[in-house]
Design goal:
Layout lengths: L7 H6 L1 H4 L5 H10 L1 E5 L5 H11 L3 E5 L24 H12 L4 E5 L8 H5 L4 E4 L4 H14 L3 E7 L2 E7 L8 H4 L12 H4 L5 H18 L8 E6 L4 E6 L21 H4 L14 E2 L1 H8 L6 E4 L3 H4 L9 E2 L5 H4 L9 E4 L4 H12 L5 E4 L2 H8 L8
Amino acid sequence: MSDVTLSNEEIARYSRHLIMPEVGMAGQRKIKQGSVLLVGTGGLGSPLALYLAAAGVGHIGLVDFDVVDSSNLQRQIVHGTSTVGVAKTESAKRRLADLNPLVEVTTYETQITSANALDLMRPYDIIIDGTDNFPTRYLTNDAAVMLGKPNIYGSIFRFEGQATVFYPKQGGPCYRCLYPEPPPPGLVPSCAEGGVLGVLPGVIGTIQATEAIKLLAGIGTSLVGRLMLYDALEMRFRELKLRRNPTCPVCGEHPTVTELIDYDQFCGIVPEVNTLSNQYEITPGELAELLRSDARPFLLDVRNPYEIAIASIPGTDKVIAVDQLPERISELDSSVEMVVYCRSGMRSGRAVELLRSAGFHKVKNLVGGILRWSDDVDPSVAKY
């Protein structure tokens, strides 16, 4: 540590850290010498990247393969309108360079996989999980355990979030100790389906950033062995004690998972295959022609009621949320031509399969849903 010094510019920039005895010059030098890899530069990664750069973390790695979309800007505050369409890693790097040009930022515009995870993580002191899907969470966890690195975890959904530090090397549990098995595919909706309060990732992400700074500086008590739960709607924090599972297949006394596996397969996710034949599908352009003709089909919307207030296809005949369809199927007439739609075509695809199994043979799924309808037919219909 003796070879790490702070310039006068850095002393001025980090002065509010330096005057706290818990941090001081020694702690700030440790922060400068430290390195953190952020897996994801979205909702959680945005506040994480900003606060870690502002704090003077010497080397920050950013892993993401997505591009900035306008729908991200409600919560992904490291990005901006000027970078819509730009790779998220590049967008974040530009913002961090403006915030603090004294830190090194390395970008990896790639999807983290079993093939590259260990190589991506190896150069960094701390791994931070800012992902939003189960395969990547298990992958990030297992790789961090195998490398003996702390994994600062956070997750968000609607109004609720949670955070902890998985660090078996310090006696704490890993992600698999908390969640030994992933939920069945489709059981837990994504933020794109269920929504998220825009400020929620700011709360959880700054908690993760706090834990990273504390670990680098060697101060305070970490969240190792504790899971912090946050309910924004009730404005309430709770804490659960976590214990390491001695039989955990990754961090237990006799691990059975000693190399990275196929995490999509582990989570029961198979490549998306369209099980509907073309005769049960219709494009927005084809639907638009039918709606203008005498052969107008019955139009069924299977989205949730609160989505209807955002946007709908004009002329929709009935709304039944896909989850309510089995018990309300008697409200529909199997003898009429029917087109089913939702936001993107996924839920309506499931609805069509359900209707077909119930004897509806004149039913089709709108490919791409209301999103593609807006792109191909009617741009006045809002996309969300």
